Amino acid sequence: MSLRLVFLGLLAPSVYLAYKLEWTEKAIEFFTGPGSYSRIFAIIVLVLNWKALPLAWTVRIWHSMVLHLLVRPFHTHTPDKLFHPVISESHASIAELDYRFHKSNSTYLADVDIARSHLASHLLARSGHLAWNNAKTRFVMDPSDPSRPARGAFNIGLGGVFCSWRREIKPYQSYEMWTRIVSWDRKWLYIVTHFVQKGAVKPRSWDAPENFGPTRAAGDEPRDWEKKVFATAVSLYIFKIGRLTVPPATMLQGSGLLPERPGGWATDVNGSGDVAGSGESDGTTIGADPERGSWQWVEQQRRKGLEYAQHLTAMNSSLHGQFEPGEDGALGRFALG
């Protein structure tokens, strides 16, 4: 609604400005004058490949943050919605194709950036606001002096991304990115993004009051949905206030996404980033079928996702040490790298 009001408010002055500057005549000359075919063709090419234009990635990132942090109201999702996906749509522009005329593997990560930003900005808007104004909100306290809030600017960092490709995406083919939280430990929040054929799978319902499109009726089960997945990426997010690492559980609690748990959720950070020092659990026994939205159910889902995520953590923490400085020589140095 706010965007509509802004648009209506700017409509009249825009029309008047166009009249005073004679933009109408200039536009007619642009599209009908000498060389108009070339200009029209160039505009079409630019429109169809806008994702590859300079600063397009920056605009897409800022759009996701502005949309969820400034335009849309902060959502109050309950813990049973914690692992639900955010769906983003895109397409493979001609500038993203490789020499085989498929979407280049290197371009997937730029799309993952946008999809991940939508998820984090949507789910963690409330806790992000608290952390951004930590000096006033006292959302995170300084471990060295618990009487004062942690000092420094709030920041979200990307620790690593793993991407696996299964099927190619053809030129200008549309696809959806289904992005959700898969797990977390004391240091990292793990986010998975599936690249899915557009329209192949529909959600049962939408969590927000808005109607974002068609939903899947009861009894309508997806068939062979694995064949509709083009690629899958897993990202590691880390939250910082100054040099202090803010545990993901703290951010999730600040947005009301974690239920109350006896003894609380682990909030301290150790060197490995493991939960309770084990990388899996704190020894708490969970029943086979906990109630959805309960702390047992959330912990069960977190442990399930961590079975996959911990392998990425191990690689992320130790693979840098496998760097070989060429003690026995190097193959060569080549240009245009």
Short key terms for the protein model shown above:
337 residues, alpha+beta, 6-stranded antiparallel sheet, two-stranded antiparallel ribbon, 9 helices, disordered N terminus
Task: Give a topology summary.
Blueprint: H1 2-20, H2 23-32, H3 36-48, H4 56-71, E1 86-91, H5 108-123, H6 125-132, H7 134-137, E2 141-142, E3 145-149, E4 154-165, E5 174-184, E6 189-197, E7 229-241, E8 244-246, H8 248-254, H9 295-318
Antiparallel strand pairs: 1-5, 2-3, 4-7, 5-6, 6-7, 7-8
Helix pairs in contact: 2-3, 4-5, 6-8
Organism: Clonostachys byssicola
Protein name: Capsule polysaccharide biosynthesis protein
Family: Belongs to the lcsJ thioesterase family.
Give a description of the structure.
The protein is an alpha+beta fold. The protein is about 35% helix and about 20% strand. The chain has 9 helices and 8 strands. The strands form 2 sheets. Strands 1, 4, 5, 6, 7 and 8 form a 6-stranded antiparallel sheet that branches. A two-stranded antiparallel sheet has the order 2-3. Helix 4 (about 55-70) packs parallel to helix 5 (about 110-125) and helix 6 crosses helix 8 (about 250-255). Belongs to the lcsJ thioesterase family. InterPro entries: HotDog_dom_sf, THEM6_lcsJ_thioesterase. It comes from Clonostachys byssicola. This is Capsule polysaccharide biosynthesis protein.
